[in-house]
Amino acid sequence: MSRRKIAAGNWKLNLSFEEAMQLAKSIADEEIPEGVEVVLAAPFPYLKSLRDLTMSIDKLHIAAQNCSEHAKGAYTGEVSVAMLDSIQITHVLVGHSERREYFEDTSEVLSKKLERAFENGLVPIYCCGEPLAIRKDGTHVAFVKKQLEETIFKLERENFSKLILAYEPIWAIGTGETASPEQAQEMHAAIRSVIADKYDTALAESIPILYGGSVKPANAKEIFSQSDVDGGLVGGASLKAESFSEIIKSF
Ligand code: PGA
């Protein structure tokens, strides 16, 4: 079955406003291949301007990198999904390993964030992935399955069908060490199989699953050509227009 192909850039805590706008302009000027969608996950203060800049391009979405698990109220410093929705932001990263590790995004918190996203009609890009010790143990599939069970497997089928998943082995994030295409394919197929067991095959076959972890122009083509890999969530290589454009053209 042909699934949507997605190249998502995760800018993390990088770029000045000017640099971000320039980068988005360059990406917006590029021809996005047929059947491919591009997502730019940007810092909160830039989202509205980026949205305005790219509004007319259907295949280019702006995402927040995080959101509050709370709907509203006395939570100083937080940004709610309703606020994101009110500036027409359509996507939000949920469960990035850096959020899990440094900001106590536990499964309970992530479940609430998913709930907030669906209440407001945003598409969550849900991230999962194992640390190095688990990979070395050979228990990576069970580890990721547990991450899914504690969060997205609690969703109703209808909400689940709107998700984008990203498998990001922590040992490959920002390290220059990429999972081999075979390692990515193995995990993506395993994720699809547990979705089929929990829900059904049609749903499992329809969900885009992105690979993340040191994706760059030199390896994108081979990784994206794996049958269960539907694109990438790209950190470092998404910060330069040239390299991200090349990745977008790697499908
Ligand atoms: P990286 O980051 O491409 O720099 O490894 C990926 C991510 O964290 O989403």
Compact overview of the structure:
By secondary structure, the protein is α/β, with parallel strands linked by helices. The protein is built from twelve helices and eight strands.
Structural class: alpha/beta
Q: Give the SSE order as H and E letters.
A: EHEHEHEHHEHHHEHHEHEH
CATH class: Alpha Beta
Number of domains: 1
Distance between the termini: 16 Å
Question: Can you tell me the overall shape?
Answer: globular
Q: What is the count of DSSP helices, taking H or I runs of 4+ residues?
A: 12
Helix content: 40-55%
Bin the strand percentage.
15-25%
Strand segment tally: 8
Bound molecules: 2-phosphoglycolic acid
| Overall radius of gyration | 17 Å
Largest sheet: 8 strands, parallel, barrel
CATH topology title: TIM Barrel
- Side-by-side strand order of the widest sheet: 1-2-3-4-5-6-7-8
Instruction: Please name the fourth-level CATH homologous superfamily.
Output: Aldolase class I
Task: Give an overview of the whole structure.
42% of the residues lie in helices and 16% in strands. It has 251 residues and is an alpha/beta fold. Helix 1 (17-29) packs parallel to helix 2 and helix 7 (140-149) packs across helix 9. The chain binds 2-phosphoglycolic acid (PGA).
